[in-house]
Write the structure tokens for this entry.
Amino acid sequence: MTASASSGSFGPAAFQLVLLRRMADFRPELAEEARRLLGASLAEQREANKRWQAMVRSPRSRGALARYRSVLGPPESTAARTIGDLECEALLWRLPLWPDLRFEVLAAPDGAVWNEWLIRAPGAPGPVLRTPEDLRPWSATVDEVARAFAPVRPMEGTAPTRWRLAFAAQGRPCVAEFTYGLLQRVAVDGVEV
């Protein structure tokens, strides 16, 4: 594992292990393969998650945006964004495990974090999504599925880092589940495909 993840500092490699820990709830085989690509053991992943949770829950926590900046370094890009009548800042970081994606944090003017998830990198080609069979694990983001199968109905996720979308594809009811914005699984007519 890289020095930043295994030494006293907590860097991008350790942060990716935290993301993988939650994704393993749905796709253990993909998360295991990605963990190996990072050169990390299961024990190192558990330790990274433990340290991340300690940072998140610390009474001396500097706030979510400051935490992301300290862990991931300066963002690759920042941009003002308007969502409805709300103004926010979108900060993007590159993560080596997902070169065509970026980790996006949407922050309020006061620095409060409204959303954090993986999105397609600007200019990177996205998947072609026409049928439920095109929705393969880790192939698409929330936004891509929402655009491809509009109209969609957002549903409550099973945890703060999870989202679900209900939609119809080829006349069949579907529910797509995401962790940190990345597609994990799809059920068509109530059966996982």
Q: What stands out?
A: Residues 9-60 form one domain. The first strand starts at residue 77 and ends at 83. Helices lie at 3-6, 12-23, 28-37, 42-57, 64-72, 142-148.
